[in-house]
Amino acid sequence: MTADPTGHAGPPVRFPVDAAELPRRISLDKARSIDAGEVDHVIPDVLPVGATLVYGRPKCGKTRLVDQWVHCIAYLQQWAGYVPVETGRVLGIDFENGAHMRMTASEQIAPYGSLAIDHEVKPVNRAADTAAEPGGTDMVIIDNQWPGSDFRDHRNELDKQLREAKETGHPYRLVVIDTFKAFTGPPPGTNVNSYDWERSCGQALYDLALSYGIAIVLIHHSNKAGEVSGSTGIAAAMTKVFRIDRPVGHKDGTLVCEANRAGDEKSWSGTFEGGIWTMTDQVTRAFVECTGHQARIIWALADAEPEPLELEQICAAMPGVTRPTVKNALTRARQKGHIARTGDGRWALTEGVMPLAGRSE
Questions:
Q1: For residue 353, is pLDDT > 70?
Q2: What is the DSSP string of 4-71?
Q3: In the predicted model, is pLDDT for residue 308 greater than 60?
Q4: 27 Cβ partners below 8 Å, 6+ apart?
Q5: 33-45-169 Cα angle (round to 5)
Q6: Directed axis angle between helix 323-335 and helix 292-304, to 10°?
């Protein structure tokens, strides 16, 4: 046996523990002797236990993407080639879409009759019969009238429902909140700044997710520059942050991982047709590294391939963005190596930055 640098005969024994049982305040000296394992995932490489933020412009397909994750977890539908081996219950807290909208989405993702649950649940013929019973075992619950008037009420109600589901032996595996802002509401009073408020709300949801061993997905909007709307405090408390880029009029987009405490920052490219995302993990670096105005430039140049564009043409493709802002974004994208000036002064994608399938009709 080879001695280690400390002079001991070999590594000491480590004991496995459940990471969810770790106290808030630990001694790292002692904690090094235990094995808490890898971070648990609800969907491998995609959804870790904890809080995940998914943001993008309105109508880019955020909710539909998350709906596909819901069907993957609850109904064993494949997502990007992954199919779980066992089902998990899902709770959806929906402040934006009515029940009919969610039913339509489900039908597009998996037509009626294609899921095992369609043949196991007795059909109903009245709208009232679709009500979810308290303490029931239904795989997916959608609540669009969540109780409470502020974040404390909303968070406490979520804690209550998660606890009751766990105590009855039918715990949830995923919670979807659409949207984060609607769930948290504004800061209480004028003495709390946005950063502190949004970070504390995110942290509270992160802590709740860890305590129950679940994933909580928070759907959120981007601002006009294509970045997270609000303060940086929102993303600061997240386990993982995803940005969806899909310009208006395009069927192609990217799901970009901007931050991941639980592993590698893996991104995907995809096509959004018929209300369904079809994803692949083949995505070029430019679509990952360029955000906001730079991303819009990449898409505009990809749209025009193989023809380069003049500055004025790029400005025309970015209505509402000033000429100096466009020029600044061009400079930054060029510094990253994703675009270049042609001999006649126009702009083009560099070699290796391949356009996606292009604009939908």
A1: no
A2: PTTS-SSPPP-EE--GGG--SS--HHHHTTEE--SPPEEETTTEESEEEEEEESTTSSHHHHHHHHHH
A3: yes
A4: none
A5: 70
A6: 80
